[in-house]
Amino acid sequence: MDNLNNAADELSRWAEDLERKAQRYQALHGRMSEVSVTETSADGRIGVTVDANGVTTAVTLAPAVRGMDPAAVAGELMACTRRAQARLRERVTGLVHDLVGTDEAGEAIVGQYAERFPDPEPTPAEQGPTPPPTPPAAPWPAATASDVLATRKPDRDRVVAPEEPTEEDLFYQRRSWLQ
Questions:
Q1: Mind listing the domains of the chain with CATH numbers?
Q2: Which of the given ranges, 23-37, 123-137, 159-173, has the highest pLDDT on average?
Q3: Which of 28, 58, 61, 162 has the fewest CB within 10 Å, making it most exposed?
């Protein structure tokens, strides 16, 4: 009888523990649905906001963007997005550890965010000066004049003229399409 009471108490504690864990995960879900992160370019002309899934929800472009090279704008948009997603990963990791601790499910969430949103690659400005580019190697040897002449078609200098116009051509040349 004592073993039965101990088993019932243990089952009751296990159920209470599951209920507390479920409440913590519900709180985590609620807090994560409110998370958004905004990153801005160093010059303040471009801003990107991502939601809890890392999806871009807002893009802000200052009027000074008009004169920028479109490739530079696109590159900065992507850099801001990657930085925002990396900061999102950090915020979610903090929320998971604060609300649910370091259990297996919490660590799985953290691992998914770490896999999806790695640290962004440093931009050229953050890396410092770049070495001068090396000239590219020639993909094949330069052609000589004899190579060019050898590949030329033999009848290229022949002049081809149209035939004399036929009676039908002359008839339609004198007509207007309006007639």
A1: 36-116 (3.30.1310.10)
A2: 23-37
A3: 162
